[in-house]
Haloacid dehalogenase-like hydrolase (Succiniclasticum ruminis), 173 residues
Amino acid sequence: MLVILDLDMTLIDTGALQAYRDARRWREIKNHLRETCLYPGIKEMVKAFHENNIRMAVITNSPGMYARDLLDYYSLPVDRIIGYHDTRYHKPNPEPFLLAISLLHSDKEHTVAIGDSVNDILAAKNAGVVSCAALWGCSDAGALKNAGSEHDFSNPGQFKDFVLNAYTDSKTV
C-alpha cells in the first residue's frame, strides 16, 4: 500500500514560512524551521505506517530540498519526496502522483492520498486514487468537499486508523 502525503499544512504547520515561500527565499527558510510545528498525531501516524510496511511519498509543489529539510528537522522518514522540480506538471495535474506510484511499485488501487487543498484533492482524483481531506490544516473544508474528497478527517489519528484498517482488512483501500 502507498500513502501520498501533502507537506505544508497537512504534515507540518508551515504558516510562519509563507512569506519566505511566496518570495521563493528557499535557502533562508532553513534558518526558520523552528517557527513551524508538527501537527499533533503526525509522528505517531508516520511511525505506524512505517511499522506496518506502508510506503509513504510526500508530494509538494515546493522544491524537494525544502521538503527534505522539513522532514529531516522533524525526523519523519518517508520513502520518496517528489517536489516541484521532479515533474513537468504539478498538482492538480496527476503527474507527481503517477510518478510516486511508479517509483514505489504500487498501483492506483492500493494508493490513498491526503492533503489540505483543492489541488491535493483534484490531483488524487485525476490520478485515480482515493482522495482524503486533511481538515486539521485546511482553511476551507467546504472547498475540499466540493472538489470531491472521498473521505474527510479531522485529525491525523483518524486518517491513520482509516489506512491501517483498510490495509489490515483487505490489503486495499
